[in-house]
Amino acid sequence: xxxxxxxxxxxxxxxxxxxxxxxxxxxxxxxxxxxxxxxxxxxxxxxxxxxxxxxxxxxxxxxxxxxxxxxxxxxxxxxxxxxxxxxxxxxxxxxxxxxxxxxxxxxxxxxxxxxxxxxxxxxxxxxxxxxxxxxxxxxxxxxxxxxxxxxxxxxxxxxxxxxxxxxxxxx
Length: 171
Fold this sequence. Notes:
Elements: E1 6-11, H1 17-30, E2 35-42, E3 53-57, E4 63-65, H2 81-96, E5 101-104, H3 109-112, H4 118-126, E6 131-136, H5 140-147, E7 152-154, H6 158-166
Parallel strand pairs: 1-6, 1-7, 2-5, 5-6
Antiparallel strand pairs: 2-3, 3-4
């Protein structure tokens, strides 16, 4: 377990954070780390919906459709509340089964507003399980407020993530 049980990859809009976290998850799993949590992926093959997204349950590999169809011209949030509930269940189930690390795709606008998977992030830390997530630069102040300034801020590189996980426990 790393010395700091909370880590956030700080990224810019030009960083491909979804791909980076997926690579990190695969690399950690190859090292024998039992993973839980969810990662977001864009679904590039859905031609009629260029914003289609899904969640990947890191423990089971299950794909959870994240986008909901709201009709042409809609400007409302397209995140399906049922998908978030399933993502929440994935995180909570992983915690109950004693995973080594929970990865949650990001602390974003939903979490800043008190929704999304914010509660599951807090529950992960309270359970004593390390948490890895990503936070866009624009939400860095809110992230620091949420964590009380605890944890590590990581560069958006695979090496930074793997070094964080490999850091000896200072406890």
